[in-house]
Write a structure and sequence with these properties.
about 55 residues, mainly beta, 3-stranded antiparallel β-sheet, two-stranded antiparallel ribbon, 5 strands
């Protein structure tokens, strides 16, 4: 999962959900991190995230 809202500001964090243990883990990201977004979709292709749509929040 990329981004989100913490009740005060938009985020640009990246988390992954382990569907067996139902635990979230924050991932370490390298390279250029996009600004916080909302209303977008993200999918993983190999070791990269593809983000589509939404807007900078």
């Amino acid at each position: 999962m990329y981004g989100g809202w913490d009740g005060k500001k938009w985020l640009s964090d990246v988390y992954v959900l382990d569907t067996i243990s139902l635990e979230w883990t924050e991932l370490s990201v390298s390279g250029t991190i996009p600004p916080p977004r909302c209303g977008h979709s993200v999918t993983m292709i190999e070791k990269r995230l593809l983000m589509y749509g939404g807007r900078v929040c």
